[in-house]
Every structure is written in C-alpha cells, then in structure tokens.
Amino acid sequence: xxxxxxxxxxxxxxxxxxxxxxxxxxxxxxxxxxxxxxxxxxxxxxxxxxxxxxxxxxxxxxxxxxxxxxxxxxxxxxxxxxxxxxxxxxxxxxxxxxxxxxxxxxxxxxxxxxxxxxxxxxxxxxxxxxxxxxxxxxxxxxxxxxxxxxxxxxxxxxxxxxxxxxxxxxxxxxxxxxxxxxxxxxxxxxxxxxxxxx
Length: 198
What we know:
By secondary structure, the chain is an alpha+beta fold. The chain has one domain: Methylpurine-DNA glycosylase (MPG) (3-methyladenine DNA Glycosylase, Chain A). The chain has helices spanning 9-12, 16-23, 111-117, 130-137, 141-144, 181-185; strands at 27-31, 36-47, 75-80, 84-90, 99-109, 155-158, 168-171, 189-192. Strands 1, 2, 3, 4, 5, 6, 7 and 8 form an 8-stranded antiparallel beta sheet that branches. Strand 4 (84-90) and strand 5 (99-109) form a beta hairpin.
C-alpha cells in the first residue's frame, strides 16, 4: 500500500545526493484546484553548496538562490532561458545549501491534463526533461517558489514505490560547462531504468 502522506522534513534534511537517490520512485503531487496531478519521479540531479562549482549556491546566497540555504523541504524554482521553470527540492540542514533538481517523471494520475499542457506530446516526450515536467504538471516559479512541500497543500511529494539499486543508473549532470572538471564528471544524475541488467 502506498503511503499518501507528504514526505517529512527529515526526509529532505540529508545530503542532496542521498535525497536524490531516495526520490526515485516517489510521487510528486500537484493539487491544481480542479484536479490532482500525480507523477512518478524517474530522474533526479543533486546539487551541493559552496564546494560544488556546478551549484547555484557555490558563490553564496543571492536573492535568487536563497531557498537553497534552507530550511529543507521547500521548493526552489528558477527560470532558465527565460522560458522553462526548473523545480528543485531543498535538502541538507538550514544554512547548508543543497537541492535536488527533478529531471523526469512518468504520469500516474491526470495524464490527459498533462498531455494538454504539453500540447499533445505523449509517451517519453511528455515529461523527460526538467522544463517539460513542470509544464506538464502546471508548476511555475510565480506560484510555487519557496513553497513548503511538507504541508501537503498544493504541491508535495509522497513515498510512492521504492526503486531497487540495480535499476538505477548514475552519470554526470547535464548543462554545467562552467563547473570544475571534477564536478562536471561527478555521477550526481540518477535515473530509474527498469530494464537495467541485474
């Protein structure tokens, strides 16, 4: 039986990479007012603080990245290319920056509405990127940045179905050419692939 309670603050109050792994298989829920959209998380990307040159938090707090510094369990949403809303989940302890970018989801409930938001795109192309998934789920910076994910209101996460380690592929993060070499190659992007070999 799936636990439909929101993930607790303690779930998020851990190192970003640990949270990124445990988010695979979890459900993200957006209650839009007219319906409840639910999707399974299948790809994540972890970001640290001052020691992670790929992170927004590497140079310290700014008006944009302040949510990354805690408390954990909040949404950090930013706009990229002036078009795409990117949803991150704040991790670590207060004052210690960290977040997990949600990179891909699969619909569980409300798929028709997701397809409509994505202008008819279905299957793999529905939500296989961070900008695509926020569009499909109707998640925007204007409405949900700094939202408390632990309240169980509007936007939250549930435990879903755990993913076994043998079905997880780790690789380097995407779109960080500015980062130091060691951070560019760090295997901090995690993907659920059910047909992975044992």
